Amino acid sequence: MAEQRYEQRRRDPLPEETDAWEALVAAARRTVADGLVVGTSGNVSVRVGDTVLVTPSGVPYDRLTPDDVTGVDLTGRQVLGTLVPTSELPMHLAVYATTDARAVVHTHAVHATAVSTLVLELPPVHYMTGALGGPVRVAPYAPYGTPELAENVLRALEGRTGCLLRNHGTLTHGTTLDQAYDRTAQLEWMCSLWLKASSVPHHTPSLLTESQITEAGTRLRNYGQPG
Ligand SMILES: [Zn+2]
Fold it and tell me: What is the residue-averaged pLDDT of the chain?
């Protein structure tokens, strides 16, 4: 896809926006390096105050520079940069409008996308399901970039920090970019795990109960170094 630019006076990025952009570009490059997307698929956004920094449409992530800071306000009006924001912006804005998310990661990860074509919900084969708030739902299909897809995603995200998008990919959010990214990686890993376990002939994977998932979620929230 050709790179699109148009000239219009925008404000200059604040120092914290410049820093957030650097982290966003690094995360976007990681989605390619980690095999979660191919080419310019997928997109990443970070909220700084009432500005949402977002990957531009159709520009390879290794070509993004510190000067390419692209940002919109919470209604989608562009306030930073001249590159056209990702076409999947409505989905990102919908998440920021309805949750306390500070970062959103959207990918076309292969195992997760495969699972999105098979079930309505990822069967809870692993306790990391608790880290996403419970069994991960699949949002019904709608064309990319549409308000309809954004609505479907919001419904699938209720009480969750991640969902699958049928015949499309993944979306996770977090209070930091690292957290949102890690949730995508965990989701893709769990999808791969379920595909492996459920493809063993004459066997059915055992699933965790609701209370086991809840307990794991509580333990995960308290996990880490004390203090
Ligand atoms: Zn997509």
Answer: 94
The active-site residue, picked from 7, 88, 151, 158, is: 88
What's the structural domain count of the chain? 1
Q: From ligand 1's centre to the CA of 56, what distance in Å?
A: 13
CATH of the domain at 93: 3.40.225.10
Distances (CA, A) of 14 to 18, 51, 66, 184, 190: 6, 11, 12, 28, 38
Q: Range of 78's domain?
A: 15-221
Residues 6+ apart with CB under 8 A from 100: 175
> Considering the domain boundaries, does residue 214 fall inside one?
yes
- 188 belongs to the catalytic site: no
pLDDT at 92: 98
Residue 108 within a domain: yes
pLDDT tens for 60-83 read 999 999 999 999 999 999 999 999
Residue 107 inside a domain? The answer is yes
User: Per the confidence metrics, is the pTM higher than 0.90?
Assistant: yes
